Amino acid sequence: MNAAGLRRDLLRWYGRAKRDLPWRKNTDPYRVWVSEIMLQQTTVAAVTPKYEAFLRRFPTLVALAASDEDEVLKHWAGLGYYTRARNLRRAALSVVADHGGDFPSEFEPVLALPGVGRYTAGAILSIAFQKPFPLVDGNVIRVFSRLFGLKGRAKDPRFVGTMWPLAEKLMPKTNPGDWNQALMELGATMCTPDSPSCGACPVAAHCVAFKKGLQDMLPLPEAARKPVPVKWTCLWIEKDEKVLLWRRSEKERLLKNLWGLPEAGRLAAAAGRRLASASHSITHHAMTVELREAVLDAGTPPPEAKWVPRGEVRAHLVSSLWLKLLAFTEL
Ligand code: SF4
Q1: In angstroms, what is the span from residue 129 Cα to ligand 1's centroid?
Q2: Among the listed residues 306, 143, 315, 330, the one whose alpha carbon sits nearest the alpha carbon of residue 237
Q3: Catalytic amino acids?
Q4: pLDDT at residue number 331
Q5: Which CA distances in Å does 44 have to 96, 135, 325?
Q6: Is 201 in the pocket of ligand 1 (CB under 6 A)?
Q7: Cα 12 to ligand 1 centre (Å)
Q8: Are 244 and 305 in contact (CB under 8 A)?
C-alpha cells in the first residue's frame, strides 16, 4: 500500500471537491458535535434543513443545557431516533456541570458524554480540535474493504474490529479532521454502496477492488433482516376543543418517552369509526396504524394522559407517524 500517495490524492480531491455543508462553515466544537449527533443514522439531505434551525434556537451549548426537554424534542422533529436529542441535552448539562460549559478536548471525557461513541468522539476531536483520532463507520468500512480488497461483512463486529487499527495506521500527521472527513466524503459521494463512481474516483489508482473488478462484491452482503410487523389501533378522543394525548413510557418498544395518541386498551374508551390509517417504518419495524374516533368512559384519565388544546397538538406529536395520521384533521 502506498499510504503517502493515497493520503495525498484523497486530501487534494477533498480540498477541491468537498460539499458546501452548513456544519463545515467553522470548526466550533458545539457545532461539530451537534452535526455529528444529527448525522448518526440520518442522511445529509434530512439533516441540512434542520441543522441551522436547531442552532438558531439553541445557539450555544449553555443555551441547550438551559432548555427543557420537550423544547429540544420539538426542534428535533422529523429527524427520528429521539434518544439522540435527549442525550444531546443531557450531555450539554454534563459539560456545564463538569467542564464549566467548555466542550472537553480529551478523548475520555468526550467519550463519557451521553450519546457519544468511539466514532463520534473521533469525529469531534479530529475536526474541532485537530487531534489524530480515527473514525470508523459504515462509509469507512465500505471504502477500506474496497480500497484494500478486504472480504467481510460491514456489520460483523470482528470485521469492524480490524478496521480501527487500519484507520489509525493511515491517519496523517497533519490535518486529521480533513482526512477523516475526506474518507467520509469519498464513501458518501464516490464509493457509494450500490454504484461506486470508480471512473471519477480520486483514489482509483490505489484501489484493489477497482483493479480486480470486485467493487460490487465488497464488502460482502449482509444477511437480510426480516421486517417485524407491528399493528396499532390509536384513539382520537376530543372534548371541548382539546385532544387527549398520551406520554409513552421509557419501557415502550417504540417511540419511548414521547407524546402520542393513546393506544386502544390503554384507557377505558369506546372506539368508533375509523378516521385514518398509515404505514410507517421505525428501524426494522413495519408498522400499520389505524386511528379511530373514541369517547372516554366516565372518570379521570390515567396519569400518562393529558388534555391538550387542538392548536398545540402538532407541537407535542413530533414523530412523523402522527403527522401522517393527522392528515385527516385540520390541525
Ligand atoms: Fe470505491 Fe471505486 Fe474508488 Fe475503489 S475506485 S475506492 S471501489 S469508488
Answers
A1: 29
A2: 306
A3: 36
A4: 65
A5: 29, 18, 26
A6: yes
A7: 16
A8: yes
